[in-house]
Write a structure and sequence with these properties.
globular; 267 residues; eight-stranded parallel beta barrel; 12 helices; 8 strands; TIM Barrel; alpha/beta
C-alpha cells in the first residue's frame, strides 16, 4: 500500500497565514518529544548540534512526533554529506544546518540533500525510513518534494551574505542564530543587545528581499516581538530543558525551605 509523507516545513510555511512558533527538544528523549509535540506548538526542533542526540535518539523522536500535527525539523551538528544522508534516511524531511556563512556553502548543502544527477546524496531508499522502505511511491524521482532545507546564519559573515545565501536555488529558508552571532560580534551572552538585534534585522531584510522565509531563535518575548514585527515567518520561543529548569526552580523556590542547611547549586 502506498505511503504518503507529511507536508514539509516549506509547505507549512507557504500555507500559513501567520508566523509559526516552535519549541526546541534537547533532552534526546522520545517521551519528552511526544509531550512537547502534543502541546499545540506548530513545529519542533530536534537538535543534534548542542544536545546529546545521535541517530537512534533522533529516530525515536521523529517516530514520537509523527502522531501529532507538529512539524519536526532536525538541526544536524554539521553540514557534511554523510551526516545529512544518514539523517535524511532516518525519515527527517526538514533539515536545519548551522553555521552557514556563504552562498557556496549553501550550494554544497543543496547538492548534499539531492540525489544524482542534481546532487550527491547516497541512494539507499529501499533500506531507509525516508521512503518507508519503498512504500512511498516514486520517492527517488520526487525526493526533492519531500525534503526542505533551511540554513542558519550566525556570524557577521553569514549576516553579510544572508541575501546571497537565501537566493540559492534549493534553500527554503534562513534561520538567524543570535547566540553565536552575539559571540562573533564580541558580545558573548548578549543575544538581545541592540547591535545583535540590529544585525539580525539586517539579515531579515536581505532574506525577505530574496523571497525566502526567515526565522529566528528568540526566547525573550520583547526580542521575539521585534523579529515578528520585522517579518519573521517562523521562530523558536522555548526549549524543553529551559522549561524544565525554570519550572522546577519556581516550584523549589515556592515550596522548599529557604532556612535549611542543604547545599544549593549556584549558577
Amino acid at each position: 500500500m502506498p505511503f504518503h509523507l507529511s507536508p514539509t516545513f516549506r509547505e507549512r510555511l507557504a500555507g500559513s497565514s501567520r508566523p509559526l512558533a516552535g519549541i526546541w527538544v534537547c533532552t534526546a528523549s522520545p517521551l519528552v518529544a511526544e509531550i512537547v509535540a502534543g502541546s499545540g506548538t506548530d513545529w519542533i526542533l530536534v537538535d543534534m548540534e548542542h544536545s546529546p542526540n545521535g541517530l537512534t535518539s533522533v529516530l525515536g523522536q521523529l517516530q514520537a512526533i509523527a502522531s501529532s500535527p507538529a512539524t519536526p525539523v532536525v538541526r544536524v551538528p554539521i553540514g557534511d554529506p554523510v551526516t545529512l544522508k544518514q539523517v535524511l534516511d532516518l525519515g527527517a524531511q526538514n533539515i536545519l544546518v548551522p553555521m552557514v556563512s556563504s552562498a557556496d556553502q549553501a550550494r554544497d548543502l543543496v547538492s548534499a540533500v539531492r540525489y544524482p544527477p542534481r546532487g550527491v546524496r547516497g541512494v539507499g531508499s529501499a533500506l531507509a525510513r525516508s521512503a518507508r522502505w519503498n512504500r512511498v511511491e516514486d520517492y527517488l524521482a520526487r525526493a526533492d518534494e519531500h525534503v526542505s532545507l533551511f540554513v542558519q546564519v550566525e556570524t557577521i559573515e553569514g549576516i553579510d551574505a544572508a541575501g546571497d545565501i537565501a537566493a540559492v536555488n534549493g534553500i527554503d529558508g534562513v534561520f538567524v542564530g543570535p547566540s553565536d552571532l552575539a559571540a562573533s560580534m564580541g558580545l558573548l551572552g548578549q543575544q538581545t543587545h541592540p547591535d545583535v538585534v540590529g544585525a539580525g534585522l539586517r539579515a531579515f531584510a536581505a532574506v525577505r528581499a530574496a523571497g525566502k522565509p526567515v526565522g529566528v531563535n528568540a526566547f525573550d518575548p520583547d526580542a521575539a516581538q521585534a523579529y515578528l514585527d520585522a517579518g519573521a515567518s517562523f521562530l523558536l520561543v522555548g526549549a524543553d530543558v529551559a522549561l524544565l529548569a525554570r519550572g522546577s526552580e519556581a516550584l523549589a523556590a515556592r515550596w522548599s525551605s529557604a532556612d535549611d542547611d542543604r547545599p544549593r547549586a549556584s549558577y
